[in-house]
Amino acid sequence: DEWVIEFPTVVVDRYEVYQRDAAGVWQVAVAGDRVAHTQWPLDSLRPQFALKFPRAGTHDVLIRVVHKMPSSFRPLILKRSAAQQSDSDHMLWTGLLMGVVFALILSCAQMSFAYRDLTYAWYAGYLLFTVMAALSYSGVAHRMLWPAADTFSSSAIVIGVMAAFAFNLQFSRSMFGALQGRAYHLVANGLIGACVVYLVITVLTVKFAPLVQIFQALTASVFAFIIYSALSAWRKGVRFGGYWLMVYVPYLLGVAATLADSSGLYAMSWIPAESPIALAILEAVAMMLCINAYSRLRHAQAVQAQVAAQHDPLTGFLNAANFAAQAAKLWNNTPPGKRHIAVLHIQVEEAEIRPLMPLDAEALMARSVRVVRASTREFDAVGRTGPTRLGVVMADVANGEALNGRLQRMVALGLMRESIDPRNAPVRLRISVGQRHEFAGGFDALEAALRHLSQTPDTTGRSIAHLGVVVPVTRIGNSQPYDTTQLADAAP
Questions:
Q1: Residue 71 near residue 12, CB atoms below 8 Å
Q2: In CA terms, which of 184, 277, 286, 483 is 20 to 30 Å from 444?
């Protein structure tokens, strides 16, 4: 089993290893992230060089490292089989990261389409470029995605980091920005713009050394801004801001320690080479706690907005537009004689005349809610169609005692005083009824007929009028009957 020398740090421009051959001539082998992987001496994730030991004596190995930024170098001498096993373990961690992250990306894409919320799309973009940076840092991308590239392998790490920063800033602002002021969004826009500019400069130039301090300052600013966003939200009562801090702060500390070690700022030989990938896996999975908490909050807000858009804020019934849409759909899709459908127009009035303190429309409607809810079923459509007018659609209530009993109960409850607060004035409900088996026209025609019926003066004092029913009623002392083609008593 041959021996190899391995350099765990991939992010180095160029490694040159010089050895003498059998004839004593110096031979050189090169590897690094600015050397195409196809030119490496061994097919490995990290730069590896076979050692050509003589059978006896000493063997000189000269190593030249070409790099324009601070870094740390800890070459290892190990057997080829052990190096291959290390690469296999690294690929296993990388595959685990990719499986977890791409499952989360698909989940975020689905939620983004379902909720029409870009927050999930920003997080999916952050995950995607985090994977790109992790694959580039570990050497997997250089080996498997762009083996013939030379300078791009080094640029890919910076591109992935800057793009991940930009998406993470958008994600943080989307989750916590509603709690902040204008200055917060200006700072976020500035940091996002700086990340994009640095990314473009990285693509256009290969001289990173003059920009390393800018990279460090930008990285520290992004981390500080994201932590401030989560901390501020948590202090304002947003629970998933605390989840974010518990996940993100350890992740940032781990990444910072790895970068400090690889850049030569501090010697931390105890940090495993797989640390960035393991930390990315933990961060991506744990961050889903924040996503789930945000999803519940977002769903609750969406439901509240939907309910507010469809319902009257005072009564809780459907508003006029939504009630008309539901009632028209049910009425027009039901042929006459196939199903019992009754549409009610209810005019709410004061039952007692109080000239000094008349009730306004809001007070009348507020007092009619209990009466209508007690007389209708959960699946009956009830809506507020005017300032003092309600509409009800009752399905599958047969004409006769069943329907009349509900209507008479509604009228009677309105005239009763509340036992809890007898001071509450009763209300009078004037109900106009249209039934599907008696009215063959469409819903628009029904609406017009019911509106005309409810506006027709009633001198009989009756509260319930059916559309299209003829009931002969004769005045006492007068042999001429009423014309009740449009207005009739519902009671026997």
A1: yes
A2: 483
